[in-house]
Design goal:
Layout lengths: L1 H20 L12 H20 L4 H19 L9 H21 L7
Length: 113
């Protein structure tokens, strides 16, 4: 039953990432690296929930997150006021690694490596 909640949270994370990635005007930042911190936090949550809620190997959960990040960065290149950024993808990847480590440390029995 608990895994179902993490699966629902994983779906919510995907929806939130897609929605926020495709906004035309994200608004003024509150601090200098806010964009990168939000990228890392979103992908950390996505990976943590994916590792707990999906019955697949950890590498596949990470691959899904990485591909989602690449797709969103590419899609942003077509949206006025947004641009594709390798630094954003690096922040996404750092978030994926952080989510994997957090799940391995605090998540109990998680996905297989």
């Amino acid at each position: 039953m608990k895994n179902r909640y993490f699966f629902i949270a994983w779906i919510f994370c995907i929806a939130a990432i897609v929605y926020n990635s495709l906004l035309t005007a994200p608004g003024p930042p509150l601090f200098s690296m806010q964009d990168k911190a939000l990228h890392a936090a979103a992908y950390a949550a996505l990976t943590f929930c994916g590792m707990r809620g999906l019955r697949m190997r950890t590498i596949w959960v990470a691959a899904v997150g990485f591909c989602l990040g690449c797709a969103m960065e590419y899609a942003q290149s077509f949206i006025p006021g947004r641009d594709m950024s390798a630094w954003d993808q690096l922040a996404n990847t750092a978030g994926i690694a952080t989510g994997m480590m957090a799940c391995m440390k605090f998540g109990g029995k998680a996905g297989r490596v």
